[in-house]
Specification:
By secondary structure, the chain is an alpha+beta fold. Helices cover 39% and strands 37% of the residues. The protein is built from four helices and eight strands, in the order H-E-E-H-E-E-H-E-H-E-E-E. Strand 3 and strand 4 (116-132) form a beta hairpin. Helix 2 packs antiparallel against helix 3. The model is unreliable at 1-11, 15-21, 23-35 and 212-222 (pLDDT under 50).
């Protein structure tokens, strides 16, 4: 009995020592990490580049409502086929047309006499995104779509982007690093120390800011061409840099 008690006590002491040793090692490791993160001069920089858009993304579709699902589907399909034909005839490649949303929903209204919702029809919505690579044609394409889909046409929005922003990101990156270095130099001068080389660099790129516009199209007998002005968009990114202190 005494021997068993001694063995149990010894085992408990060994486990306690191992636990304390692990805690000490972990604390040392964490302390080293925190110490490293607190050393040097930490700054951030932001770079922005203004770019003229070369891509127009048009979100459009068809919405049809009838008393039955079959009628609503047929009406929506016929109108959508005409819209798709108008897009392809305007020079938009099929790979640049993508379905974004399709739904069939009940349309109800409140019946005061029976005090309940009653179904009065069904609504079919079909939405696609068309990528227009020739911005000068954007207005005429919108007009063609509106004419093809008639009163069922829904143009939900338009956005602008750049097909290949990589070169602009390189320019923004240089500007961000220049700004970060200028901040670090000033901080080193104010602190009376000598600035060393970067010991840590991290980049974070926020999304490109796309100007947007929303249109509700109601085609007239002889509509004027829809004016589209892409303007400029801002491509930006941020960097965080840690510089060593030499003295």
């Amino acid at each position: 009995m005494k021997r068993s008690w001694l063995l149990a006590t010894g085992l408990a002491l060994m486990l306690t020592m191992a636990f304390l040793s692990g805690c000490t090692e972990s604390a040392t490791t964490l302390g080293g990490i925190f110490s490293t993160q607190q050393e040097g001069i930490w700054v951030s920089g932001r770079g922005e580049v203004s770019v003229v858009s070369d891509i127009v993304s048009l979100r459009l579709g068809i919405e049809a409502q009838e008393t039955s699902v079959a009628e609503a589907q047929t009406k929506a399909a016929e109108a959508m086929n005409k819209v798709m034909a108008a897009l392809t005839e305007s020079g938009i490649d099929e790979k640049d047309i993508q379905t974004q949303y399709f739904s069939i929903q009940q349309v109800t209204k409140w019946n005061r006499e029976t005090e309940e919702q009653i179904v009065i029809g069904y609504r079919v919505t079909n939405t696609v995104t068309a990528k227009i690579r020739d911005i000068d044609k954007a207005g005429s394409i919108i007009d063609a779509v509106a004419e093809a889909g008639g009163d069922l046409t829904r143009i939900n929005g338009i956005s602008f982007s750049v097909d290949d922003p990589s070169a602009y990101y390189e320019e923004a990156r240089e500007k961000a690093m220049d700004e970060a270095k200028a901040k670090a130099k000033q901080l080193a001068r104010l602190g009376g120390v000598t600035l060393g080389k970067p010991t840590y660099i991290s980049e974070g790129a926020p999304p490109i800011i796309y100007p947007r516009a929303v249109y509700e199209v109601a085609p007239a007998q002889a509509p004027a061409e829809t004016p589209i002005s892409p303007g400029e968009i801002e491509i930006s990114l941020t960097v965080q840099v840690a510089y060593a202190i030499l003295d």
